[in-house]
Amino acid sequence: MDTIQQQFSQNVERLGIQLTETKLEQFETYYSLLVEWNEKMNLTGITERDAVYEKHFYDSLTIARVVQFDKQNSLADIGSGAGFPSVPLAIIYPHLQITIIDALAKRIKFLEEVKTKLGLTKVLCLHSRAEDAARKREHRDNYDVVTARAVARLAVLNEFCIPYVRPGGIFIAMKGTDISTELDESRYSVSKLNGKIQDVKHLSLPTDGADRHLVVCLKKGPTPSAYPRKSGIPLKSPLVKPEKTARSTDK
Asked: What's the whole-model pTM score?
C-alpha cells in the first residue's frame, strides 16, 4: 500500500468503510482503466492519481454518510459518466444490484470494460436516456436508492431520477458548492414527483477542502403517469413553479 492508498484508506474509514487488499487492487485497476480510456475519449478532466482517489473515489463513497447500504438491495446511477458514484459503490458493496444508465454509448463501452476487469457481476450497464428507461416497467418505481452526481440542476435531476425510486426509497443528488437557490427552485418538482426533501448534508473533501452537498429525497408514492416527460423536455423546460401572472388593473 503506497501513500495515496494509505490516505484513501484512512479517509474512507471515517465513512465507516474498511478497505481490503482486494478492494484496493480494484480501485487501482479502475484508475488505470480511467487514465487509459481518457486518452481515447473525454471521461474526466481529473487524471492525477491523488486527485482521482479523493475527488472521484472518496467523493463517490460519501453517500455512505446518508445511506445504510447493508440494508439496501438495489441502486440506479443516472447519467453515470465515467462510473461515479456507482463503480466505487459496487466495489465496496458487492451485494448491491446496480444499474448504470448513460446516454453516451462510448461511456457505456468503457463501463462494460470496467465491470469485466473488476469482476463486478451485479452491475448492469444500460445505454439509454434517463427519460426513456424510466418508462420501462423493470426500472420504474423499482430501486431502493437512486443517485446522480453533478449531472444537471436539481429541478431537472428530480425528473430524471425520482421516477426510478421505489415508494419508500431515496434519491440522493450529489452536488458541489452553495446550492440554496437551486434547492429552493427544486421543491416544486419534488412535490410533483411524489417526493419529499428529507435532508441536506454538507461535507468537505478531506485534503482539497472543497464543499459537497448530498440532497436526500424520500419517495412517498408511485410516479405520476405524466412523468418523466419525453426525452429532451426536462432539460429544455425544467419543472419549476410557474410565475404568478400579475392581475391587470385596467377597467
From this structure: 0.93
